[in-house]
Amino acid sequence: MRKVQATEAKTHLAHLLSAVERGETIAITRHGKLVAHLVPTEKQDRATRRVTVDRFKAWRATWKGIDMSIKDILAARHEKYRH
User: Fold this and answer.
1) Which of 16, 29, 32, 38 has the smallest number of Cβ neighbours within 10 A?
2) Ranges 15-19, 38-42, 46-50: which has the least confidence
3) Helix (H) or strand (E) holding 33
4) CB under 8 Å to 39, separation ≥6 — which residues?
5) Closest residue by Cα to residue 42 from 57, 61, 62, 22
6) Listed residue (68, 1, 75) closest to 39, CA to CA
7) How many CB atoms lie within 10 A of CB 9?
8) Contact 4/26 with Cβ under 8 angstroms?
9) 38 phi and psi angles, rounded to 5 deg
10) Residue closest to 30 by CA, chosen among 5, 50, 12
11) Which strands make up the sheet holding 2-5, listed edge to edge?
12) Is the pLDDT of residue 64 over 70?
């Protein structure tokens, strides 16, 4: 992953976006500290979905006394719309 200072990123944004379109991820720093990442859209979408699924699994693990699989939950949800 390439690291770029914020001032350089501002000056060369078009070039950096071209690199990101080709699949590169770029870290943007300010005063040596990481402040942002430029990532290709599909990577971000995949990462966002993974985080969402992981959060749901962690939340579901806190349910007490409910012994339902995801298949059971979806079946119950779809049953509601059949009536």
Assistant:
1) 32
2) 46-50
3) strand 33-38
4) 20, 25, 47
5) 22
6) 1
7) 19
8) yes
9) -100, 120
10) 5
11) 2-5, 26-30, 33-38
12) yes
